Amino acid sequence: MKFIKHITILFILLVSSITYAQVKFEAKVSKNKLGVNERLRIDFEMNQDGDHFNPPDFSNFTVVGGPNQSVSNSWINGVRSYSKTYSYFLAPKKQGVFTIDQATINIDGETYKTVPLKIEVTTAVEIPKDPNDPDYLAAENIHLVAEISKTDPYLNEAITVVYKLYVSPNTGVDNWQETESPRYNDFWSQNIDMKGQKVQTGTFNGEDYRFLVLRKTVLYPQKSGKLNIEPLSLDISVQVPTNRRDIFGRRLMTQAHRTVSAGSKTINVKPLPEAGKPADFSGAVGDFSFNVSMSKTELKASESLQAKVEVKGKGNLKLINLPIISLPSSLEVFEPEHHENVITNLDGMQGSVSDTYTVVPQFKGKYPIPSISFTYFDLKTETYKRIESKELVIDVLEGPISGANSNDNLVSNTVKQPVVLSSDQFAFIKTKTNFTSTKPSYFFQTNLFWSSLLLPFLAIPLAIVFRRKKAERDADVFGNRIRTADKLAKKYLSNAKKALGKKEEFYIALEKALHNYLKAKLHIETSDFSKDVIKNLLAERQVDAQTITDFIAILENCELARYTPITIVTMQQDYDKAAKTISLIDKQAS
Questions:
Q1: Contacting residues for 503 by C-beta, under 8 A, at least 6 apart
Q2: Residue ranges for the chain with pLDDT beneath 70
Q3: Cα–Cα distance between 50 and 112 in angstroms, integer?
Q4: Predicted local confidence at residue 132, as pLDDT
Q5: Are 375 and 384 in contact (CB under 8 A)?
Q6: In the 3-class helix/strand/coil scheme, how is 474-541 assigned residue by residue?
Q7: Measured distance CA(255)–CA(172) in Å, rounded
Protein backbone atom coordinates (compact mmCIF):
# COMPACT_ATOMS: atom_id res chain seq x y z
CA MET A 1 0.00 0.00 0.00
CA LYS A 2 2.88 2.31 0.91
CA PHE A 3 4.57 1.44 -2.39
CA ILE A 4 1.42 2.35 -4.34
CA LYS A 5 1.25 5.69 -2.48
CA HIS A 6 4.83 6.56 -3.48
CA ILE A 7 4.14 5.59 -7.09
CA THR A 8 1.06 7.85 -7.11
CA ILE A 9 3.02 10.83 -5.75
CA LEU A 10 5.78 10.29 -8.33
CA PHE A 11 3.17 10.09 -11.10
CA ILE A 12 1.50 13.34 -9.96
CA LEU A 13 4.87 15.14 -9.82
CA LEU A 14 5.77 13.82 -13.26
CA VAL A 15 2.46 14.94 -14.75
CA SER A 16 2.81 18.36 -13.05
CA SER A 17 6.31 18.85 -14.42
CA ILE A 18 5.19 17.84 -17.93
CA THR A 19 2.18 20.14 -17.70
CA TYR A 20 4.36 23.03 -16.55
CA ALA A 21 6.91 22.38 -19.26
CA GLN A 22 4.23 22.56 -21.96
CA VAL A 23 4.27 25.93 -23.71
CA LYS A 24 0.96 27.74 -23.99
CA PHE A 25 0.32 30.68 -26.31
CA GLU A 26 -3.29 31.69 -26.84
CA ALA A 27 -5.51 34.64 -27.78
CA LYS A 28 -8.46 35.74 -25.62
CA VAL A 29 -11.06 38.41 -26.38
CA SER A 30 -13.32 40.34 -24.04
CA LYS A 31 -16.35 39.51 -26.19
CA ASN A 32 -17.09 37.69 -29.44
CA LYS A 33 -20.05 39.90 -30.33
CA LEU A 34 -20.17 43.69 -30.01
CA GLY A 35 -21.76 46.78 -31.50
CA VAL A 36 -19.98 48.94 -34.04
CA ASN A 37 -19.77 51.68 -31.38
CA GLU A 38 -18.15 49.43 -28.75
CA ARG A 39 -14.56 48.41 -27.98
CA LEU A 40 -12.92 45.00 -28.04
CA ARG A 41 -9.98 43.91 -25.90
CA ILE A 42 -7.75 41.09 -27.12
CA ASP A 43 -5.00 39.52 -25.01
CA PHE A 44 -2.18 37.31 -26.30
CA GLU A 45 -1.01 35.23 -23.32
CA MET A 46 1.97 32.90 -22.93
CA ASN A 47 3.32 30.92 -19.98
CA GLN A 48 6.98 31.28 -20.99
CA ASP A 49 8.95 34.31 -22.11
CA GLY A 50 9.40 34.67 -25.86
CA ASP A 51 10.84 36.99 -28.49
CA HIS A 52 9.78 38.48 -31.82
CA PHE A 53 6.08 38.77 -31.03
CA ASN A 54 4.16 39.38 -34.27
CA PRO A 55 0.48 40.41 -33.88
CA PRO A 56 -2.13 39.69 -36.57
CA ASP A 57 -3.30 42.23 -39.10
CA PHE A 58 -6.20 44.15 -37.54
CA SER A 59 -7.38 45.36 -40.96
CA ASN A 60 -11.08 45.49 -40.03
CA PHE A 61 -10.40 47.28 -36.73
CA THR A 62 -8.75 50.48 -35.59
CA VAL A 63 -6.11 49.98 -32.88
CA VAL A 64 -7.09 52.58 -30.27
CA GLY A 65 -4.80 51.28 -27.52
CA GLY A 66 -1.80 49.02 -27.13
CA PRO A 67 0.15 47.01 -27.30
CA ASN A 68 0.26 47.04 -23.51
CA GLN A 69 2.62 44.48 -22.02
CA SER A 70 2.24 42.88 -18.59
CA VAL A 71 4.32 40.17 -16.87
CA SER A 72 3.38 38.03 -13.86
CA ASN A 73 6.03 35.90 -12.16
CA SER A 74 5.30 34.16 -8.84
CA TRP A 75 6.34 31.19 -6.69
CA ILE A 76 3.68 29.23 -4.77
CA ASN A 77 4.76 26.22 -2.66
CA GLY A 78 7.99 26.04 -4.62
CA VAL A 79 6.21 26.01 -7.99
CA ARG A 80 6.93 28.89 -10.40
CA SER A 81 4.04 30.48 -12.25
CA TYR A 82 4.87 32.78 -15.19
CA SER A 83 2.58 34.74 -17.51
CA LYS A 84 3.28 37.37 -20.13
CA THR A 85 0.48 39.21 -21.97
CA TYR A 86 0.27 41.61 -24.92
CA SER A 87 -3.05 43.53 -24.91
CA TYR A 88 -4.74 45.57 -27.66
CA PHE A 89 -7.91 47.67 -27.64
CA LEU A 90 -9.76 47.61 -30.96
CA ALA A 91 -12.62 49.62 -32.47
CA PRO A 92 -14.52 47.98 -35.38
CA LYS A 93 -14.60 49.92 -38.63
CA LYS A 94 -17.86 48.43 -39.94
CA GLN A 95 -20.48 45.76 -39.38
CA GLY A 96 -19.94 42.12 -40.32
CA VAL A 97 -18.29 38.88 -39.23
CA PHE A 98 -14.50 39.17 -39.17
CA THR A 99 -11.61 36.83 -38.41
CA ILE A 100 -8.66 37.89 -36.28
CA ASP A 101 -5.81 35.87 -37.73
CA GLN A 102 -2.99 34.10 -35.92
CA ALA A 103 -0.36 35.86 -33.84
CA THR A 104 3.12 34.31 -33.65
CA ILE A 105 5.98 34.31 -31.15
CA ASN A 106 9.35 32.57 -30.83
CA ILE A 107 9.92 30.63 -27.57
CA ASP A 108 13.13 28.62 -27.09
CA GLY A 109 13.75 28.54 -30.82
CA GLU A 110 10.26 27.30 -31.67
CA THR A 111 7.50 29.35 -33.34
CA TYR A 112 4.06 29.20 -31.71
CA LYS A 113 0.76 30.46 -33.16
CA THR A 114 -2.63 31.36 -31.70
CA VAL A 115 -5.95 30.06 -33.01
CA PRO A 116 -7.87 32.48 -35.31
CA LEU A 117 -10.92 34.07 -33.67
CA LYS A 118 -14.30 34.97 -35.16
CA ILE A 119 -15.77 38.35 -34.13
CA GLU A 120 -19.29 39.51 -34.99
CA VAL A 121 -19.89 43.27 -35.24
CA THR A 122 -23.52 44.37 -35.12
CA THR A 123 -25.24 47.73 -35.45
CA ALA A 124 -24.61 50.34 -32.77
CA VAL A 125 -25.87 49.34 -29.34
CA GLU A 126 -27.23 51.62 -26.64
CA ILE A 127 -24.67 52.34 -23.95
CA PRO A 128 -26.16 51.91 -20.45
CA LYS A 129 -26.62 55.20 -18.62
CA ASP A 130 -24.38 54.27 -15.73
CA PRO A 131 -22.79 57.38 -14.17
CA ASN A 132 -19.88 55.21 -13.02
CA ASP A 133 -19.24 53.71 -16.47
CA PRO A 134 -16.22 55.44 -18.11
CA ASP A 135 -17.61 54.81 -21.61
CA TYR A 136 -20.90 56.46 -20.72
CA LEU A 137 -19.14 59.45 -19.14
CA ALA A 138 -16.94 59.85 -22.22
CA ALA A 139 -20.01 59.73 -24.49
CA GLU A 140 -21.74 62.43 -22.42
CA ASN A 141 -18.76 64.79 -22.05
CA ILE A 142 -17.07 64.75 -25.50
CA HIS A 143 -18.76 66.18 -28.61
CA LEU A 144 -17.51 66.95 -32.14
CA VAL A 145 -19.51 69.58 -34.03
CA ALA A 146 -19.36 70.85 -37.63
CA GLU A 147 -20.55 74.46 -37.86
CA ILE A 148 -21.54 75.58 -41.38
CA SER A 149 -21.79 79.29 -42.12
CA LYS A 150 -24.65 78.89 -44.65
CA THR A 151 -26.68 75.84 -45.66
CA ASP A 152 -28.39 77.35 -48.75
CA PRO A 153 -25.68 79.21 -50.71
CA TYR A 154 -25.77 80.13 -54.37
CA LEU A 155 -23.63 78.27 -56.89
CA ASN A 156 -19.98 79.42 -56.43
CA GLU A 157 -20.77 81.31 -53.21
CA ALA A 158 -18.25 80.77 -50.39
CA ILE A 159 -19.30 78.90 -47.24
CA THR A 160 -17.20 77.86 -44.24
CA VAL A 161 -17.12 74.61 -42.28
CA VAL A 162 -15.58 74.86 -38.79
CA TYR A 163 -14.99 71.66 -36.76
CA LYS A 164 -15.00 72.13 -32.98
CA LEU A 165 -14.25 69.55 -30.27
CA TYR A 166 -16.20 70.28 -27.07
CA VAL A 167 -14.94 68.80 -23.76
CA SER A 168 -16.64 69.21 -20.38
CA PRO A 169 -14.58 70.93 -17.63
CA ASN A 170 -14.11 67.77 -15.52
CA THR A 171 -12.90 65.63 -18.46
CA GLY A 172 -9.43 65.44 -20.01
CA VAL A 173 -8.24 64.47 -23.51
CA ASP A 174 -4.89 62.68 -23.89
CA ASN A 175 -4.72 62.41 -27.68
CA TRP A 176 -6.81 61.69 -30.75
CA GLN A 177 -6.48 60.41 -34.28
CA GLU A 178 -8.69 60.81 -37.34
CA THR A 179 -10.57 57.67 -38.36
CA GLU A 180 -12.54 59.40 -41.13
CA SER A 181 -11.58 62.57 -43.00
CA PRO A 182 -14.25 64.63 -44.78
CA ARG A 183 -14.17 64.65 -48.57
CA TYR A 184 -15.72 67.58 -50.37
CA ASN A 185 -17.09 66.13 -53.59
CA ASP A 186 -18.50 68.78 -55.96
CA PHE A 187 -16.83 71.59 -53.96
CA TRP A 188 -13.71 73.66 -54.53
CA SER A 189 -12.10 73.57 -51.08
CA GLN A 190 -9.18 75.03 -49.17
CA ASN A 191 -8.17 74.46 -45.54
CA ILE A 192 -7.30 77.50 -43.42
CA ASP A 193 -3.99 77.47 -41.52
CA MET A 194 -4.65 76.45 -37.89
CA LYS A 195 -1.29 77.18 -36.24
CA GLY A 196 -1.34 78.60 -32.71
CA GLN A 197 -4.85 77.49 -31.80
CA LYS A 198 -5.71 77.72 -28.08
CA VAL A 199 -8.36 76.09 -25.92
CA GLN A 200 -11.37 78.39 -25.56
CA THR A 201 -14.43 78.42 -23.31
CA GLY A 202 -18.00 78.37 -24.54
CA THR A 203 -21.36 76.68 -24.17
CA PHE A 204 -22.78 73.51 -25.70
CA ASN A 205 -26.47 72.69 -25.25
CA GLY A 206 -26.65 75.44 -22.63
CA GLU A 207 -23.78 74.06 -20.50
CA ASP A 208 -20.23 75.36 -19.99
CA TYR A 209 -17.60 73.56 -22.07
CA ARG A 210 -14.04 73.99 -23.22
CA PHE A 211 -13.54 73.67 -26.97
CA LEU A 212 -10.76 73.54 -29.54
CA VAL A 213 -11.15 74.44 -33.22
CA LEU A 214 -9.68 71.47 -35.11
CA ARG A 215 -10.19 72.50 -38.71
CA LYS A 216 -11.53 75.36 -40.83
CA THR A 217 -12.35 74.84 -44.50
CA VAL A 218 -13.65 77.24 -47.16
CA LEU A 219 -15.92 75.64 -49.78
CA TYR A 220 -17.23 76.86 -53.14
CA PRO A 221 -20.04 74.61 -54.46
CA GLN A 222 -19.52 73.71 -58.11
CA LYS A 223 -23.00 72.45 -58.90
CA SER A 224 -26.51 73.17 -57.70
CA GLY A 225 -28.80 70.86 -55.78
CA LYS A 226 -28.32 68.89 -52.57
CA LEU A 227 -24.61 68.26 -51.94
CA ASN A 228 -23.30 66.03 -49.17
CA ILE A 229 -20.33 66.81 -46.88
CA GLU A 230 -18.89 63.60 -45.45
CA PRO A 231 -18.23 63.53 -41.68
CA LEU A 232 -15.02 64.03 -39.73
CA SER A 233 -14.60 61.23 -37.17
CA LEU A 234 -12.06 61.01 -34.34
CA ASP A 235 -10.99 58.28 -31.95
CA ILE A 236 -10.15 59.99 -28.65
CA SER A 237 -8.37 58.80 -25.53
CA VAL A 238 -10.30 60.39 -22.65
CA GLN A 239 -9.63 60.83 -18.91
CA VAL A 240 -12.96 60.74 -17.02
CA PRO A 241 -13.58 61.05 -13.26
CA THR A 242 -14.52 58.03 -11.13
CA ASN A 243 -16.42 57.82 -7.84
CA ARG A 244 -13.16 57.05 -6.00
CA ARG A 245 -11.00 59.69 -4.33
CA ASP A 246 -7.38 59.93 -3.20
CA ILE A 247 -6.21 60.69 0.35
CA PHE A 248 -6.61 64.42 -0.32
CA GLY A 249 -10.24 64.04 -1.37
CA ARG A 250 -9.57 64.58 -5.08
CA ARG A 251 -11.41 62.44 -7.61
CA LEU A 252 -9.36 59.74 -9.29
CA MET A 253 -9.46 59.60 -13.08
CA THR A 254 -9.69 56.58 -15.38
CA GLN A 255 -9.03 56.26 -19.11
CA ALA A 256 -11.67 55.49 -21.73
CA HIS A 257 -11.82 55.58 -25.52
CA ARG A 258 -14.52 57.38 -27.44
CA THR A 259 -15.24 57.67 -31.18
CA VAL A 260 -16.96 60.94 -32.05
CA SER A 261 -18.27 62.10 -35.41
CA ALA A 262 -19.40 65.48 -36.68
CA GLY A 263 -22.03 63.71 -38.77
CA SER A 264 -22.83 64.04 -42.44
CA LYS A 265 -24.09 67.46 -43.55
CA THR A 266 -26.28 68.36 -46.52
CA ILE A 267 -26.00 71.69 -48.35
CA ASN A 268 -28.84 72.86 -50.61
CA VAL A 269 -27.09 74.86 -53.35
CA LYS A 270 -29.29 77.33 -55.26
CA PRO A 271 -28.67 77.79 -59.00
CA LEU A 272 -27.95 81.29 -60.26
CA PRO A 273 -31.09 82.97 -61.63
CA GLU A 274 -31.69 82.75 -65.37
CA ALA A 275 -33.54 86.07 -65.48
CA GLY A 276 -31.18 88.78 -66.62
CA LYS A 277 -28.18 86.45 -67.06
CA PRO A 278 -25.80 88.03 -69.67
CA ALA A 279 -24.78 85.94 -72.65
CA ASP A 280 -21.09 86.44 -71.82
CA PHE A 281 -21.43 85.55 -68.11
CA SER A 282 -18.51 83.21 -67.19
CA GLY A 283 -19.44 82.23 -63.61
CA ALA A 284 -17.95 85.02 -61.46
CA VAL A 285 -19.83 85.36 -58.15
CA GLY A 286 -18.99 88.00 -55.53
CA ASP A 287 -18.17 91.70 -55.43
CA PHE A 288 -15.57 92.85 -57.99
CA SER A 289 -13.96 95.79 -59.78
CA PHE A 290 -12.56 95.56 -63.32
CA ASN A 291 -9.86 97.50 -65.15
CA VAL A 292 -7.81 97.41 -68.38
CA SER A 293 -4.54 99.40 -68.31
CA MET A 294 -1.44 99.96 -70.47
CA SER A 295 2.13 100.34 -69.21
CA LYS A 296 2.49 103.23 -71.72
CA THR A 297 0.36 104.74 -74.48
CA GLU A 298 3.13 106.46 -76.51
CA LEU A 299 6.09 104.54 -77.94
CA LYS A 300 8.11 103.81 -81.09
CA ALA A 301 7.57 100.95 -83.48
CA SER A 302 9.22 97.68 -82.39
CA GLU A 303 9.16 98.81 -78.76
CA SER A 304 6.89 96.86 -76.42
CA LEU A 305 4.21 97.66 -73.91
CA GLN A 306 2.17 95.61 -71.45
CA ALA A 307 -1.61 95.54 -71.55
CA LYS A 308 -3.11 94.34 -68.26
CA VAL A 309 -6.63 92.96 -67.74
CA GLU A 310 -7.33 92.81 -63.98
CA VAL A 311 -10.23 91.83 -61.69
CA LYS A 312 -10.10 92.75 -57.99
CA GLY A 313 -12.45 92.04 -55.13
CA LYS A 314 -13.99 89.28 -53.08
CA GLY A 315 -15.40 86.08 -54.57
CA ASN A 316 -14.40 82.99 -56.55
CA LEU A 317 -11.34 84.69 -58.05
CA LYS A 318 -9.39 81.50 -58.80
CA LEU A 319 -12.35 80.01 -60.67
CA ILE A 320 -13.21 82.83 -63.10
CA ASN A 321 -12.17 83.38 -66.74
CA LEU A 322 -10.95 86.87 -67.55
CA PRO A 323 -12.21 88.65 -70.69
CA ILE A 324 -9.87 88.61 -73.70
CA ILE A 325 -8.54 91.99 -74.77
CA SER A 326 -9.33 93.07 -78.35
CA LEU A 327 -6.37 94.63 -80.24
CA PRO A 328 -5.90 95.90 -83.83
CA SER A 329 -4.39 93.52 -86.38
CA SER A 330 -1.25 95.66 -86.90
CA LEU A 331 -0.09 94.91 -83.35
CA GLU A 332 1.78 91.75 -82.44
CA VAL A 333 0.28 90.20 -79.31
CA PHE A 334 2.02 87.48 -77.26
CA GLU A 335 0.34 84.89 -75.05
CA PRO A 336 -0.74 86.50 -71.74
CA GLU A 337 0.93 85.78 -68.40
CA HIS A 338 -1.61 84.90 -65.72
CA HIS A 339 -1.02 86.24 -62.19
CA GLU A 340 -2.94 85.57 -58.98
CA ASN A 341 -2.59 87.52 -55.76
CA VAL A 342 -5.32 85.85 -53.70
CA ILE A 343 -5.64 85.06 -50.00
CA THR A 344 -8.29 82.69 -48.62
CA ASN A 345 -9.73 83.18 -45.13
CA LEU A 346 -13.06 82.51 -43.45
CA ASP A 347 -14.69 85.16 -45.66
CA GLY A 348 -13.55 83.36 -48.83
CA MET A 349 -11.12 84.47 -51.54
CA GLN A 350 -9.95 88.07 -51.64
CA GLY A 351 -7.35 89.79 -53.83
CA SER A 352 -6.83 90.08 -57.57
CA VAL A 353 -6.23 88.06 -60.74
CA SER A 354 -4.84 89.44 -63.98
CA ASP A 355 -3.69 88.60 -67.51
CA THR A 356 -0.74 90.63 -68.85
CA TYR A 357 -0.23 90.80 -72.62
CA THR A 358 3.03 91.91 -74.27
CA VAL A 359 2.18 94.08 -77.32
CA VAL A 360 4.68 95.15 -80.03
CA PRO A 361 3.50 97.69 -82.67
CA GLN A 362 5.06 97.39 -86.15
CA PHE A 363 4.00 100.65 -87.81
CA LYS A 364 3.56 104.29 -86.98
CA GLY A 365 0.04 105.44 -86.21
CA LYS A 366 -2.72 105.60 -83.62
CA TYR A 367 -4.34 102.33 -82.55
CA PRO A 368 -7.64 102.37 -80.65
CA ILE A 369 -8.18 99.73 -77.95
CA PRO A 370 -11.93 99.22 -77.71
CA SER A 371 -13.73 98.85 -74.43
CA ILE A 372 -14.31 95.30 -73.08
CA SER A 373 -16.65 94.25 -70.28
CA PHE A 374 -16.73 91.87 -67.30
CA THR A 375 -19.96 90.46 -65.86
CA TYR A 376 -20.56 88.88 -62.43
CA PHE A 377 -23.37 87.93 -60.05
CA ASP A 378 -23.59 90.29 -57.08
CA LEU A 379 -24.58 88.39 -53.90
CA LYS A 380 -25.66 91.53 -52.05
CA THR A 381 -28.29 92.58 -54.59
CA GLU A 382 -28.74 89.07 -56.10
CA THR A 383 -28.49 90.58 -59.59
CA TYR A 384 -26.04 90.44 -62.49
CA LYS A 385 -23.74 93.41 -62.99
CA ARG A 386 -21.56 94.51 -65.89
CA ILE A 387 -18.38 96.62 -65.67
CA GLU A 388 -16.89 98.13 -68.84
CA SER A 389 -13.32 99.30 -69.28
CA LYS A 390 -12.33 102.66 -70.78
CA GLU A 391 -11.41 102.97 -74.46
CA LEU A 392 -7.66 103.52 -74.85
CA VAL A 393 -5.45 104.68 -77.73
CA ILE A 394 -1.88 103.55 -78.40
CA ASP A 395 0.10 106.26 -80.19
CA VAL A 396 3.14 104.93 -82.14
CA LEU A 397 5.23 108.04 -82.78
CA GLU A 398 8.02 106.71 -85.00
CA GLY A 399 8.33 103.79 -87.42
CA PRO A 400 7.42 102.65 -90.91
CA ILE A 401 4.01 103.56 -92.28
CA SER A 402 1.73 100.76 -93.34
CA GLY A 403 -0.34 101.01 -96.51
CA ALA A 404 -3.52 100.96 -94.55
CA ASN A 405 -2.34 103.84 -92.38
CA SER A 406 -0.54 106.16 -94.84
CA ASN A 407 -3.10 108.93 -94.44
CA ASP A 408 -2.99 108.79 -90.61
CA ASN A 409 -6.35 107.10 -90.57
CA LEU A 410 -7.10 104.90 -87.61
CA VAL A 411 -6.17 101.29 -88.12
CA SER A 412 -9.00 98.81 -88.53
CA ASN A 413 -10.16 97.04 -85.43
CA THR A 414 -9.60 93.48 -86.64
CA VAL A 415 -8.36 91.24 -83.83
CA LYS A 416 -4.78 90.07 -84.28
CA GLN A 417 -4.07 86.35 -83.78
CA PRO A 418 -1.78 85.74 -80.78
CA VAL A 419 1.88 85.36 -81.69
CA VAL A 420 3.69 82.26 -80.52
CA LEU A 421 7.33 83.03 -79.77
CA SER A 422 9.79 80.71 -81.56
CA SER A 423 13.39 80.01 -80.57
CA ASP A 424 14.81 81.92 -83.57
CA GLN A 425 12.49 84.92 -83.29
CA PHE A 426 15.38 87.34 -82.85
CA ALA A 427 18.87 86.98 -84.38
CA PHE A 428 21.87 88.93 -83.14
CA ILE A 429 25.03 90.06 -84.93
CA LYS A 430 28.33 89.49 -83.15
CA THR A 431 30.27 92.75 -82.64
CA LYS A 432 33.36 91.23 -80.97
CA THR A 433 35.77 88.59 -82.22
CA ASN A 434 38.35 86.43 -80.49
CA PHE A 435 41.48 85.72 -82.54
CA THR A 436 43.59 82.62 -81.91
CA SER A 437 47.22 82.07 -82.86
CA THR A 438 47.99 79.77 -85.79
CA LYS A 439 51.63 79.26 -84.65
CA PRO A 440 52.30 75.54 -83.97
CA SER A 441 53.02 74.60 -80.35
CA TYR A 442 55.35 71.85 -79.10
CA PHE A 443 55.15 69.72 -75.95
CA PHE A 444 58.93 69.17 -75.59
CA GLN A 445 60.66 71.31 -72.88
CA THR A 446 57.40 72.92 -71.78
CA ASN A 447 56.43 73.27 -68.10
CA LEU A 448 53.97 70.40 -68.52
CA PHE A 449 56.78 68.27 -70.01
CA TRP A 450 59.11 68.78 -67.01
CA SER A 451 56.27 68.32 -64.50
CA SER A 452 55.26 65.00 -66.07
CA LEU A 453 58.89 63.87 -66.01
CA LEU A 454 59.53 64.66 -62.32
CA LEU A 455 56.12 63.75 -60.85
CA PRO A 456 56.74 59.93 -60.62
CA PHE A 457 59.95 60.51 -58.60
CA LEU A 458 58.18 62.88 -56.20
CA ALA A 459 55.34 60.36 -55.68
CA ILE A 460 57.67 57.53 -54.50
CA PRO A 461 58.00 58.75 -50.82
CA LEU A 462 54.22 59.30 -50.61
CA ALA A 463 53.57 55.79 -51.92
CA ILE A 464 55.91 54.29 -49.28
CA VAL A 465 54.15 56.15 -46.44
CA PHE A 466 50.73 55.18 -47.80
CA ARG A 467 51.66 51.49 -48.01
CA ARG A 468 52.93 51.45 -44.41
CA LYS A 469 49.75 53.06 -43.12
CA LYS A 470 47.61 50.65 -45.15
CA ALA A 471 49.57 47.64 -43.79
CA GLU A 472 49.06 48.87 -40.21
CA ARG A 473 45.34 49.43 -40.84
CA ASP A 474 44.90 46.00 -42.47
CA ALA A 475 46.64 44.34 -39.50
CA ASP A 476 44.21 46.02 -37.08
CA VAL A 477 41.41 43.45 -37.44
CA PHE A 478 39.58 44.65 -34.33
CA GLY A 479 39.71 48.28 -35.43
CA ASN A 480 38.53 47.40 -38.94
CA ARG A 481 35.51 45.63 -37.52
CA ILE A 482 34.63 48.70 -35.43
CA ARG A 483 35.03 51.03 -38.44
CA THR A 484 32.86 48.79 -40.59
CA ALA A 485 30.14 48.64 -37.94
CA ASP A 486 30.30 52.44 -37.46
CA LYS A 487 29.81 52.92 -41.20
CA LEU A 488 26.82 50.59 -41.14
CA ALA A 489 25.33 52.42 -38.14
CA LYS A 490 25.66 55.77 -39.93
CA LYS A 491 24.22 54.26 -43.08
CA TYR A 492 21.16 52.84 -41.35
CA LEU A 493 20.64 55.99 -39.27
CA SER A 494 20.72 57.91 -42.53
CA ASN A 495 18.21 55.46 -44.02
CA ALA A 496 15.97 55.95 -40.99
CA LYS A 497 16.03 59.72 -41.51
CA LYS A 498 15.13 59.29 -45.20
CA ALA A 499 12.24 56.99 -44.24
CA LEU A 500 10.59 59.48 -41.84
CA GLY A 501 6.85 59.25 -42.45
CA LYS A 502 7.04 55.61 -43.63
CA LYS A 503 6.49 53.80 -40.35
CA GLU A 504 7.61 50.25 -41.24
CA GLU A 505 10.77 51.28 -43.15
CA PHE A 506 11.71 53.86 -40.50
CA TYR A 507 11.65 51.54 -37.48
CA ILE A 508 13.42 48.70 -39.33
CA ALA A 509 16.24 51.06 -40.34
CA LEU A 510 16.43 52.60 -36.85
CA GLU A 511 16.64 49.18 -35.18
CA LYS A 512 19.45 48.08 -37.55
CA ALA A 513 21.39 51.26 -36.81
CA LEU A 514 21.17 50.66 -33.04
CA HIS A 515 22.26 47.03 -33.40
CA ASN A 516 25.28 47.88 -35.54
CA TYR A 517 26.30 50.66 -33.19
CA LEU A 518 26.27 48.28 -30.21
CA LYS A 519 28.19 45.68 -32.18
CA ALA A 520 30.96 48.22 -32.78
CA LYS A 521 30.93 49.81 -29.34
CA LEU A 522 30.57 46.74 -27.12
CA HIS A 523 32.48 44.28 -29.36
CA ILE A 524 29.73 41.64 -29.36
CA GLU A 525 28.09 39.75 -32.17
CA THR A 526 24.45 40.36 -33.12
CA SER A 527 23.50 36.88 -31.91
CA ASP A 528 24.61 37.85 -28.36
CA PHE A 529 22.03 40.66 -28.13
CA SER A 530 19.51 40.67 -25.31
CA LYS A 531 18.30 43.52 -23.17
CA ASP A 532 19.94 42.14 -20.03
CA VAL A 533 23.29 41.67 -21.80
CA ILE A 534 23.13 45.20 -23.18
CA LYS A 535 22.30 46.66 -19.75
CA ASN A 536 25.17 44.80 -18.05
CA LEU A 537 27.75 45.71 -20.72
CA LEU A 538 26.77 49.38 -20.77
CA ALA A 539 26.84 49.49 -16.95
CA GLU A 540 30.35 47.96 -16.97
CA ARG A 541 31.40 50.77 -19.33
CA GLN A 542 30.17 53.28 -16.70
CA VAL A 543 27.23 54.55 -18.78
CA ASP A 544 24.70 56.18 -16.44
CA ALA A 545 21.42 54.42 -15.69
CA GLN A 546 19.18 57.00 -17.41
CA THR A 547 21.08 56.70 -20.70
CA ILE A 548 20.85 52.90 -20.52
CA THR A 549 17.11 53.12 -19.83
CA ASP A 550 16.64 55.48 -22.80
CA PHE A 551 18.55 53.15 -25.13
CA ILE A 552 16.53 50.10 -24.08
CA ALA A 553 13.32 52.13 -24.46
CA ILE A 554 14.26 53.02 -28.06
CA LEU A 555 14.85 49.33 -28.86
CA GLU A 556 11.46 48.45 -27.38
CA ASN A 557 9.82 51.23 -29.39
CA CYS A 558 11.33 49.75 -32.55
CA GLU A 559 9.79 46.37 -31.71
CA LEU A 560 6.33 47.66 -30.82
CA ALA A 561 5.88 50.83 -32.88
CA ARG A 562 5.60 48.93 -36.16
CA TYR A 563 2.31 47.46 -34.96
CA THR A 564 0.65 50.60 -33.57
CA PRO A 565 -0.51 53.89 -35.13
CA ILE A 566 2.43 56.32 -35.12
CA THR A 567 2.59 59.91 -36.34
CA ILE A 568 5.55 61.50 -38.09
CA VAL A 569 6.04 63.68 -34.99
CA THR A 570 6.59 60.55 -32.86
CA MET A 571 9.00 59.15 -35.48
CA GLN A 572 11.02 62.38 -35.40
CA GLN A 573 11.13 62.24 -31.59
CA ASP A 574 12.37 58.61 -31.67
CA TYR A 575 15.02 59.53 -34.24
CA ASP A 576 16.26 62.53 -32.23
CA LYS A 577 16.27 60.44 -29.04
CA ALA A 578 18.31 57.68 -30.75
CA ALA A 579 20.90 60.16 -32.04
CA LYS A 580 21.15 61.85 -28.62
CA THR A 581 21.48 58.53 -26.76
CA ILE A 582 24.23 57.23 -29.09
CA SER A 583 26.13 60.49 -28.55
CA LEU A 584 25.80 60.17 -24.73
CA ILE A 585 27.04 56.54 -24.78
CA ASP A 586 30.06 57.62 -26.85
CA LYS A 587 30.91 60.29 -24.26
CA GLN A 588 30.30 58.16 -21.17
CA ALA A 589 31.53 54.67 -22.16
CA SER A 590 35.08 54.01 -20.99
A1: 561, 562, 566, 571
A2: 1-21, 78, 127-132, 246-249, 402-445, 474-492, 523-529, 561-567, 590
A3: 10
A4: 64
A5: yes
A6: HHCHHHHHHHHHHHHHHHHHHHHHHCCCCHHHHHHHHHHHHHHHHHHHHCCCHHHCCHHHHHHHHHHC
A7: 9
Question: With contact defined as beta carbons under 8 Å apart, do 332 and 416 qualify?
Answer: yes
DSSP string, 160-188: EEEEEEEE-TT-EEEEEEEEE----TTEE
Reduced to 3 states (helix: H, G, I; strand: E, B; else coil), residue 410 is coil
Return the CATH class of domain 289-405.
mainly beta
Query: What is the CATH architecture of 22-122?
Result: Sandwich (2.60)
The answer to whether 288 and 374 have CB atoms below 8 angstroms apart is yes
Measured in whole angstroms, the distance separating CA 145 from the mean position of its chain's CA atoms is: 24
What does the alpha-carbon distance between residue 276 and residue 281 come to, in Å, rounded to a whole number?
10
What is the identity of the amino acid at 469? K
Neighbours of 55 (CB within 10 A): 24
Dihedral (Cα; 274, 280, 283, 287), 10-degree rounding: -100
Pair 320, 282: CB distance under 8 Å: yes
How far is the C-alpha of 56 from the C-alpha of 101, rounded, in Å? Answer: 5
What is the maximum alpha-carbon separation in the chain?
Answer: 144
Give Cβ neighbours of residue 52 (< 8 Å, ≥ 6 apart).
104, 105, 106
Query: For residue 472, which amino acid is it?
Result: E
94-126 as b/e: b if 16+ CB within 10 A:
eeeebebbbbbbebeeeebebeebebebeeeee
What is the predicted pLDDT for the residue at 413?
43
The string of DSSP codes covering 248-271 is TSPEEEEEEEEEEE---EEEEEBP
- The DSSP symbol for 399 reads S
From the list 335, 334, 320, the residue with the least C-alpha distance to 374 is 320
Q: How many CB atoms lie within 10 A of CB 276?
A: 10
Give the torsion through C-alpha atoms of 273, 277, 283, 284, to 10 deg. -100
| DSSP character at residue 330 | T
Q: Under CATH, which number does the domain 477-588 receive?
A: 1.20.120.330
Distance CA 522, CA 585 (A): 11
Could you tell me the pTM of the whole model?
Answer: 0.52
The answer to whether residues 366 and 396 touch, using CB atoms and an 8 Å cutoff, is: yes
Question: Pick from 172, 174, 175, 147: which is nearest to 159 by CA?
Answer: 147
d(CA 284, CA 253): 55
Q: How many CB atoms lie within 10 A of CB 310?
A: 19
* 440-445 own/partner pairs: CB under 8 Å, 24+ apart: none
Quick: pLDDT tens for 291-328: 999 999 898 888 899 999 999 999 999 999 999 988 88
In one letter, which amino acid is 124? Answer: A
pLDDT in the model for residue 284: 94
